[in-house]
Amino acid sequence: MLSSVLRLLYENSFGGVSAMTPEQYTAINGFSNKFWGWGGEDDDLFNRVRHHGLNVSRYPSEVARYTMLSHKKEKPSPDRYTNLRLGKRRFKKDGLNSVKYQILKTERRRLITLLFVALART
Predict the structure, then answer these.
(1) Which of 58, 65, 82, 85 has a 20 to 30 A CA-CA distance from 47?
(2) How large a percentage of the chain has pLDDT more than 70?
(3) Nearest one of 67, 15, 58, 65 to 38, comparing CA atoms
């Protein structure tokens, strides 16, 4: 039973919990700014990772696993498939280097700093 729960939904499934260095995240230009609503953003990030020749390591469930928190499912973005299909054209110009935001509030905590921001849609 446990192995069926841990199986990937599809071969290139990517999302949930992922880790990369700041240098890797900068090299792939972070997340696209084209995905609003639910769907596609994690697949686009995977495509960026693979496009830049980075490896995806998946540890066995005995070493690393997580449980998704319950949450309300968002409305699917009607543009998610188009944005995903055309993503490779935007890797260099859509992401960290083009995100527009305004910092609303900063909270310094013991181990982290929280930034509350307002994002501008592109």
Answers:
(1) 65
(2) 89
(3) 15
